[in-house]
Fold this protein.
Amino acid sequence: MSHLETQNLIYVYGEGTPFKITALDNVNIDIQKGEFVAIIGHTGSGKSTLVQHLNGLLKPTDGKILLDGENIWQSKSKIFDTRFRVGLCFQYPEYQLFEETVYKDIAFGPTNMGLSKAEIDERVRNAAKYVGIPDDMLSKSPFDLSGGEKRRVAIAGVISMEPEILILDEPTSGLDPMGREQILALIKNYREQTGKTVIIVSHSMDDVARFATKVIVMNSSKVEISGTVDEVFEKSSRLREIGLSVPQITEIFIKLREKGYDVSEKIYTVEQGYLELKKLFEGRGIS
Ligand SMILES: Nc1ncnc2c1ncn2[C@@H]1O[C@H](COP(=O)(O)OP(=O)(O)O)[C@@H](O)[C@H]1O
Ligand SMILES: [Mg+2]
């Protein structure tokens, strides 16, 4: 059974108005426990609308969302439960920090869950550790932190609820390269340590190739392609048609192959590229 699934999901903004927009048009996705899913697609393709359905923040116009086989909208208690089991971190989540200390911000979710003070404390410290926020920062005001630190605090605020599924909507957008690497490393590390299902909306094909076990490509409110990294990036010409790219390293290998070099086009990470070039050089007696 799928861990999280959508069945013919349809969502219309402004139904019954002249501004009606169908943001999701018959979307079917299917996610297994422990997968690391990347959702990609150009701006306006429906990614944020889709992820806001997965934790019950938006209610489908039509279709279903199933969590462990059960419709999340089947009852009030089920939808309440879903919001804790599926944690969603919005794009630019730092705009939603509002408490007077970092500690209180991270504690907000667990407090709403009705946990004891001791349990809340343990969760706050644990979540802070995952995102690399040191103890002495917990008493600071979130407004005194750097952009990257604020982002990490916001992510800790979701992790502290210990959701079974963690969803991050463009978690690295607007950060400098170092801030981006830190966020990606912490997400990767979190998944490896907890084995939990992680879903990321991402713009960077290079990042997606490095971490995803499954890629879902959205285009014009629909799922255009879905599969493993290989299955998706293999369709490089279709991706270009819909305004997306393949990883830069893949472009290089496609060009090398066009120029007659005996290399694979199915190279999606720098590591794979290194091994492929090594093979090529060794074949020519260069090492
Ligand atoms: N709150 C909203 N009200 C009306 N239309 C919206 C709203 N949010 C998004 N949309 C529209 O829905 C479509 C999908 O948007 P979105 O899910 O934000 O896409 P993405 O995250 O891929 O950029 C776009 O056409 C967008 O303009
Ligand atoms: Mg978006």
Notes: The radius of gyration is 21 Å.
